[in-house]
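Protocol check, entry for the methods section draft. Step 1: assemble the input record (protein sequence plus ligand SMILES). Step 2: submit for complex structure prediction. Step 3: store the structure tokens unaltered in the notebook. Ligand used here: zinc ion. Step 1 record:
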Amino acid sequence: MEILVIFSLVLGILLINRPVTLLFQRLYTKHQFKRFVSSETFYHSVVSRHFRYYNRLGLQDQRKFLFRTFLFQHSKNFHYIEVEQTAEMPILVSAAAVQLTFGLEKFKLNYFDDIFILRDDYHYGFYSRPFMGHVDQTGIYLSWDNFIRGISGETANCNVGLHEMAHALAYVNFVTQTEEDKHFKKEFPNFSKVARPIFTSMQQAGAKNLLGDYAATNYHEFWAVAVEVFFESSVHFRHELPELYEAMSCVLNQDPLSCLTGNTVIILRPETLAPKAVTEAHAPAAI
Ligand SMILES: [Zn+2]
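Step 3, stored output:
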């Protein structure tokens, strides 16, 4: 009899666990959305000044982009090293992560609680060359002057924000497995089927392409550089490496060039735009 009671209790807990979790998520999202609305105009002014990507989105996606930026920012602790903190900094860094993951469901890069913003190039570990940014188990590190140059388009093919977020995305999906995105994980082997031979030809035969020599350092760098070039030089990328462009578009579930055909919605998968039952009437269709 006791076993039956215990079994029933365990079964009951298991059955109500998911609905209760979903309920809490809905309440949390609703609460956060109320907070977000009061600062939405400020977020828009900051992001629209720096992100061409954001300015190409339709209104509904712009709101989704800003709300995700708000949620990402408030899930992290930002640390400022030898650089004067401004209100824009955490918003712009969060927006870089949101741009990368905009076609995916999971976007918070959970595992990384801390983001460190440094003034400019820095030395790390035993490496002799200076770093513009890096990711390790302690957090995501970015140098502010390089970050700003990257999002302003001053440096061709170089966007350290997207580069480090690309490392972080791979890290949470494949190393810590703390925030696995189903679509990303399912598609990554297909990406690698196209990417690996290109990487190998660069590393072993010295093949040259628009990704540059640094992409041949190792496969992690190849991935991060390919992400930068995918967003920063989309037309050139699609022209020179069309299969890799297509594979990147699939794994990230977005195509930065779709706006050139007059389509402002750059997400590929229609279901990501479907309204979520969890959000209130005024919340964005999907976050
Ligand atoms: Zn890197």
